[in-house]
Amino acid sequence: MKRLVRFLNCNKPQCNARFLHGTGVRLTPLTVLRHEARAAGWTERNSEDYCPDHEAWTGIDAWANPARAGDGEAEEPLTRRQYLHAAIAAHGRPVTTGLAEQLMADSPWPTAGRNTTRKTLRGLAKSGLLTAGRDPEGRRIYHLISTTTGEDGRA
Asked: Could you give the number of structural domains in the chain?
């Protein structure tokens, strides 16, 4: 059954912005209303709606691809593996599968489950971007491999 609504409210605390469909009188399917709201600059993240003034946090995507933020250069979208690598780099500490799954919650793949995240972590480790190890409690943990060089030119 489709959910019919008259308007969308901005989910940012203390914001009273509302997106109305047409005259705001007739009921509209939520998917149609959200489609029109996106065209008007509204965003939706985790089933919450945000007005253009209170856009939801753009997440790691904007951090990892600064070219998208404003200079107009067209870039390929991030892959799940690139997104997770950027999220781990932004997190700055070693991650477990559970933590990586939480980092993926704000990604373009919010439904990526534990097994998918585990496979992505293993792929990053195989490609040499992470190292796998064990924490003191025996859980598998992944460390970011630094790609920066020191003053002497060594990694």
From this structure: 2
